[in-house]
Amino acid sequence: MKTVELGTNKAMTTACEQPSHGPITVGSIPYWAAMPEVSPLPEPKKNTWGFAIPTCIIDTQSAPALVGVEAEQKYMRAFLMAGSADLVVTDFQLNQTYVHDYLSKILGFDLPQFMVVPSVGLSSLTNHLLSNPQALEGINEWLSRNNGQIQLFNVTQNEAKLALALGQPAFTCGDVQSAIEIGSKPGFKKLCLELGLAVPAGKICSTFTETQESVSEIMESGKTGFIKAKEGTGGTDLQSNIVFFPLELEASGLGLIDYVRGKLDAFGKLLGDEWVVEEMVDGQDGSIHVYIDPFSQPDTFVLGALTHDNSYVGGYFPYQTSPIECELIQKVNTKLVPALKAKGAIGFHCFDFKGEYFLEDNVRPGALDFIHQFVTRIAHKHFPGEPYSWYHCHVPNAGLYNFESIFAHFSQFLQPVSRGCFVAISNPEVLPYGRSIDMTAISVGSDNSVGEAQAHFYQISQLLHP
Asked: pLDDT confidence of 272, banded at 50, 70, 90?
């Protein structure tokens, strides 16, 4: 079978004179059921975006907070971007109902090749590969035979060891060490400061004294702030960020020294050798996405982000950019992309922002990149040329603890339509976050809107979580 061409429903980045529809707010109702007022948006432009050559996907969850957590290691979605020309390496057998009955039969996807390697204890896919010479040889043979490249998820020092063990093959991220440097919280803040880009006020710290002084400075101004681990991921939920604020200090009854020491101790070994202390800023959450190819000018697009307790929980598309966000896109194109190319840090980049400030660079596909590519692939297959919108979030479920149960009860809602709404599920396992489902509602046709997608999402979520 031929590889499915991955297109993209590119977000409007030219209508900068039009105001954003405003933030997706979360009030007293559950965050996954938030229903803001959203106006229909113009049909966005389209372009083709995806892997240009055969790609070996090693979707390793190797961030420090994720290593050794079985449920986290099974939270993988990059294979949704893969077709028959690609290879997906895992250390567990993917759910066959999801892969064959849903992806192949209902969505009509051509499937990649799969290599399943044994797990050796609770660690990460990268570590399992490093202890398996036969698997490394098989990957190298596939890369050589197909003139392929490797797509990683997290890029850490473990992946640098993997690159060395494989003989330094081509990676979509380019130079692995540069990706590690830029992908760290301190590394990206340093780069932004060098380029004159706006970041929240704060400091890069490597000692307790520096941290105490920075926390004190932010709280003396009456503001809330974060301590951000060097290689953290997942926000506050995974202790990548820890919040501090004056009222909490007052209520704790502790002095500043003990208060700050308790915050740092809460990170355990996840803090790293340097970290960021910065104030919390106001503004609309979002992410600017780009795939940097060394030979062409990349296209940037914006996806709206949903957050809860300072952690990502979902997103929506299309996103109507405000004048401030258009300026951020321009800075990505004119400053960040050239600087990253010069450092050899290419491939996927997901720049999180809030208001006018850059927050971090995920030097990998962002969570919403997978959803965007997944929906784009469905659109290319089932309603090519039709405009669409989508709304995505994690939905707590009412006791359906595997995809077989979900499929048996809700398969009628998973059938793609060329007009109206349907839902798509983008993970083969029920997620560890509150036993939740990774679900996206898609609104298709000339009257599509984010609001309509949200309404359908809420309707189906009520069935899963009445």
From this structure: confident
Please identify, among 279, 306, 329, the residue that sits at the C-terminal boundary of a domain: 279
The tens digit of pLDDT for each residue in 217-264 reads: 999 999 999 999 987 665 555 557 899 999 999 999 999 999 999 999
CATH of the domain at 429: 3.30.1370
269 and 377 together in one domain: no
67 lies in the same domain as 171: yes
Residue where a domain stops, chosen among 263, 279, 295: 279
For residues 437 and 394, the answer to whether their CB atoms sit within 8 Å is: yes
In this structure, are 296 and 426 located in the same domain? no
Domain region containing 325: 7-184+285-365
d(C-alpha 136, C-alpha 247), whole Å: 53
Lowest-confidence pick of 77-86, 220-229, 376-385, 449-458: 77-86
Angstrom distance (rounded) from CA 264 to CA 462: 40
Strand pairing category for 149-152 and 55-58? parallel
Taking residue 53's Cβ as centre, other Cβ atoms within 10 Å add up to: 12
Residue 178 and residue 304 in one domain: yes
The answer to whether residues 177 and 208 belong to one domain is no
pLDDT at residue 366, as a whole number: 81
Q: How far apart are CA 466 and CA 459, in angstroms?
A: 10
The DSSP line for 210-230 is HHHHHHHHHHHTT--EEEE-T
Is 108:381 a contact under the CB 8 Å cutoff? yes
The verdict on 19 and 124 lying in the same domain is yes
Q: What pLDDT score does 302 carry? A: 85
In sequence order, the 6+-apart residues with CB closer than 8 A to the CB of 56 are 86, 87, 88, 89, 139, 142, 143, 148, 149, 150, 151
Looking at the chain, the whole-number percentage of residues with pLDDT higher than 70 is 80
- Among candidates 123, 112, 115, 120, which has minimal Cα distance to 73? 123
- CA dihedral (406, 407, 410, 411) in degrees, to 10, reads 160
Number of domains in the chain: 3
As a whole number of angstroms, the distance between CA 70 and CA 68 comes to: 6
Residue 193 lies in a domain: no
According to the model, what pLDDT value does residue 436 have? 76
Q: How far apart are CA 286 and CA 302, in angstroms?
A: 7
